[in-house]
From TrEMBL:
InterPro entries: ARM-like (IPR011989), CIP2A (IPR042510)
Keywords, in A-Z order: Coiled coil
Residues spanning the signal sequence: none
The keyword Cell inner membrane is assigned to this record: no
Entry protein name: (northern house mosquito) hypothetical protein
Coiled-coil segments on the chain, per record: 730-838
UniProt region (Disordered), positions on chain: 296-321, 547-568
Superkingdom of this protein's organism: Eukaryota
Gene source species: Culex pipiens (House mosquito)
SUPFAM superfamilies: Tropomyosin (SSF57997)
Length: 851
């Protein structure tokens, strides 16, 4: 179907240039084909051509309502595109389709056409937060009020009036400025009196008009009872838009339960309601009867139109009755999640889902979700093992059929729901055998990841421009098999580890983390907790993908920082009418002469002129605001196209970025190898230089030998010239020359042997050197020891020197005493000598006297 979008984008340009019948026919045919599309990927807003299509379609619808056939073809396309939530939100938020639809609603007057257009507007406004200052909003509210006024009291227009009121509820829900704008144009008491017969939607409007910021307990109880009573009457008419209000309320209770105190939360309040305890059986009976009727009609329709459905319809298609069934499954899902309904009721609810899956071949994604929630709640409430086992066996029986449905269609919701169901089942069966579950999981694994695992051309051959829906399928399947790997590592750990090594998987995980989907991001955070998760590679991918998204988020933050728009300071329409009547009465009084005072008349004329000027100024401002809104819509369309184109270019450039990264890594490896080769080359150069030096020595020796040979040759020639008889001698010399050559060769061999011997001697010398060094170290240790001993001896010598010095001092003293004594001895000896000489003289004299 994407070919029809491309054809439309081509034909619409020709139609804008010349709106001939031929161009109009081509455009209409393309739109009619697109209105029958059942493949979600056709209207994927992450694809550039789809964004161009919606911009061109908006421009076509903004050209006017002169060609209603073309406009209704466009409405049919919008109805088909609004079936998918992401596309529906983008039609309002990014492409601003409500202004042209409002203009179209102002132009048509047929009841059936009005009801069809109101149904589309109701679907688009559901969950949308609009600004009250946009020019089309007040016109839309006035038109809805006019339609409600026209249909009041007419039973055949009850559904049309209910649709209009539902749109007002969507506009004013949690939107205080919009509520002020509504109350400005109505009389609240009269308006509430007119809508009192409209059931659930009227109750919700009562609560909005009374308290827009919170709900009272009494209102919650009443709305709870009204909601489920309304379901029974709505099932017959298949008005899924009313059922969506029930779902909104139940989701509101679930959100309050998550954030409020358990003692005061709304969940406790809803549990007090007798409806859940006493009337749940009757409620389920009604749903089962409706489901059986839907299954019978679906089976008959599939039997009659089997061939047509096979050719024209994918199993992702949803009819209006299937829309109603989806909302019913969502209601039951909320009931199971909110209330401890008991294993019996949970079994009945699961049987409804299983029966729908077994019989209906389409629109069963919500049924799979309901089955999963029942299984999770059964495990949470700790039901009996037999009850849980029976429920698991029932789920096991439909897995093969669900796998066949997933294989044969491209429904994103069904594939993701099936993936989540597998994850829940493997957690419930963690303690038991999972052989059958593993077989189905293996088929699902091959179905989802076959394209990634079969990329023979490497990561660059993978299509990185995947749509967001396909990426979500990959990521939820990865989350599921991560749970399988945690609970059954023998079979799945290696497969999941192999997946996490693939570049495309890194890219898709990064897209999931940067997608803004909180549930998907939480699932990816669980995957990142695995042992071998490639954090660095995924971080690089996130950095590459989050550039323009960071700018977009900064703009969104700046826009959000401005705060909510305050309520408009305007008078109510009733008061404005009364003021206009008063001014008219004053003017009539002046004309009839009842007011004759000149100053009063002039003052009244002055205020009349001022009022006229203000009215004209307000009209000009509204016209200017309308033009600015149209220009803003155009700029937003251009911005949306540029953002999608940037995203597309980034995805297309991603293989080049990956290739550049791989080349950089290879370049770093080659640089390391080059440095290693340079160092090896330097060592080889040194060896070559050494070999050249040895070769020069050999050449020098060879030249000397050659010189000797030349001299001998000259001598031989001389002898040959002198005498031929010297030939023998010449031969001898020649033989000698040969011998010398051999000797030279032997000398070379000997030289080589000598070189080897020299090498051995060098090695021996090196070993001797090491041995001598070891001996030197030993001698050094001995010397160190002897040095220490010498130091000790020196210390002893110092002590002895000190002692010797003392002894020398004593010796000097003794020598001095000896010297004194020697002098005394010498003196005594002299005296003795003198006495001897005297004695000798006396003896000689005596001898002479004797003679």
């Amino acid at each position: 179907m994407s070919s029809f979008i491309n054809d439309f984008n081509n034909h619409i340009q020709a139609y804008f240039i010349s709106s001939t019948y031929g161009n109009e026919t081509l455009v209409t045919n393309n739109l009619n084909h697109l209105a029958l599309v059942q493949d979600q990927r056709t209207f994927d807003v992450s694809v550039y051509s789809t964004n161009v299509f919606f911009v061109n379609l908006h421009k076509l619808m903004g050209t006017g309502t002169k060609k209603m056939a073309l406009m209704w073809s466009a409405v049919s396309v919008l109805e088909a595109a609004s079936k998918w939530e992401e596309t529906r939100l983008a039609l309002v938020r990014d492409f601003h389709y409500l202004p042209p639809l409002t203009n179209m609603l102002l132009e048509i007057h047929s009841g059936e056409q009005q009801q069809r257009l109101l149904a589309l507007i109701e679907l688009l406004t559901h969950g949308a937060q609009l600004e009250s200052h946009e020019p089309f909003v007040e016109a839309l509210i006035l038109r809805l009020l006019a339609l409600m006024e026209q249909g009041h009291g007419h039973k055949d227009k009850t559904e049309l009036v209910t649709l209009a009121l539902s749109i007002l509820v969507n506009l004013c829900y949690r939107n205080l400025p919009m509520t002020y704008l509504l109350t400005k144009n109505i009389s609240v008491s009269a308006f509430c009196g007119k809508i009192k017969e409209l059931g659930l939607v009227a109750c919700k409007m009562y609560i909005i008009l009374e308290r827009n910021d919170f709900m009272k307990e009494m209102d919650l109880q009443y709305l709870l009872k009204m909601s489920f009573k309304e379901v029974r009457t709505v099932l017959a008419s298949k008005n899924s838009f009313i059922l969506r209000h029930v779902v909104d309320y139940l989701h509101y209770i679930r959100q309050q339960d998550q954030h409020a105190d358990k003692e005061n939360g709304h969940k406790q309040l809803s549990m007090k309601d007798n409806f859940f305890r006493d009337n749940l059986k009757e409620f389920l009976d009604d749903i089962e009867r409706h489901t059986c009727g839907q299954l019978d009609s679906t089976t008959a329709n599939n039997t009659r139109k089997k061939r047509k459905c096979t050719e024209d319809k994918n199993s992702s298609g949803e009819s209006s009755s299937n829309d109603c069934m989806d909302v019913l499954f969502e209601i039951m899902e909320c009931i199971v999640a909110l209330e401890p309904v008991g294993p019996d009721f949970r079994k009945r609810i699961a049987d409804v889902a299983l029966k729908w899956i077994n019989t209906s071949k389409q629109s069963c994604a919500r049924a799979v979700d309901l089955l999963r929630v029942v299984l999770e709640q059964s495990q949470t409430e700790k039901d009996k093992d037999e009850t849980v086992r029976e429920l698991v066996d029932a789920c096991q029986d439909v897995l093969a059929e669900l796998m066949a449905m997933v294989t044969n269609n491209t429904d994103e919701k069904l594939t993701i729901s099936f993936s989540k169901l597998l994850s829940t089942m493997v957690k419930v069966q963690s303690s038991s055998s999972t052989t059958d579950l593993d077989n189905v999981a293996e088929q699902f694994f091959q179905h989802v990841f076959a394209t990634i695992l079969s990329c023979s051309g490497g990561p660059n051959s993978f299509n990185y421009s995947l749509a967001d829906s396909e990426v979500r399928i990959f990521l939820w399947a990865l989350h599921t098999f991560n749970d399988f790997a945690n609970l059954s590592p023998t079979l799945w750990f290696a497969k999941v580890g192999n997946l996490l090594k693939q570049k495309p998987v890194h890219f898709m995980i990064a897209r999931g983390i940067t997608s803004g989907d909180l549930e998907l991001t939480e699932a990816m955070m669980q995957v990142t907790a695995t042992v071998d998760f490639p954090r660095r590679e995924v971080s690089k991918m996130v950095g590459m993908l989050s550039g323009h998204k960071r700018e977009k988020s900064s703009l969104d933050v700046g826009k959000a920082a401005t705060g909510p728009t305050p309520p408009p300071a305007a008078l109510s329409r009733e008061l404005l009418e009364r003021m206009s009547q008063t001014v008219s009465q004053i003017q009539d009084a002046i004309a009839s002469g009842q007011i004759s005072d000149v100053s009063t008349v002039e003052l009244i004329e002055f205020y009349n002129c001022k009022i006229a000027m203000e009215t004209q100024l307000m009209s000009d401002l509204r016209g200017s605001l309308g033009g600015m809104s149209a220009q803003i819509s155009t700029l937003l369309h251009q911005n949306q196209l540029q953002a999608v184109e940037i995203d597309k270019v980034q995805r297309q450039n991603l293989p080049l970025v990956l290739k550049v990264s791989a080349l950089e890594n290879e370049n770093r490896t080659l640089e390391k190898e080059l440095n290693h080769m340079k160092s090896a080359t330097a060592s080889y150069d040194r060896k070559i230089g050494q070999m050249k030096h040895e070769l020069s020595d050999y050449i020098r020796k060879y030249s000397e030998k050659n010189q000797q040979c030349g001299a001998l040759a000259k001598e031989v020639e001389m002898y040959r010239v002198r005498d031929g008889n010297y030939e023998k001698e010449n031969k001898r010399l020649q033989h000698e020359l040969n011998d010398m050559t051999k000797t030279r060769d032997e000398s070379r061999k000997l030289l080589k042997v000598a070189e080897d011997d020299r090498q051995k001697l060098a090695e021996q010398k090196e070993s001797d050197k090491k041995m001598y060094e070891s001996k030197i170290r030993e001698r050094e240790r001995e010397i160190s020891k002897r040095t220490d001993l010498c130091q000790q001896l020196e210390h002893q010598l110092q002590k002895r020197d000190t002692k010797i010095e003392l002894q020398e001092t004593e010796l000097k003293d003794l020598l001095g005493q000896i010297a004194a004594k020697e002098e005394r001895i010498a003196q005594i000896e002299n005296e003795l000598k003198e006495s001897e000489s005297i004695q000798k003289a006396i003896y000689s004299l005596m001898n002479k006297g004797k003679k």
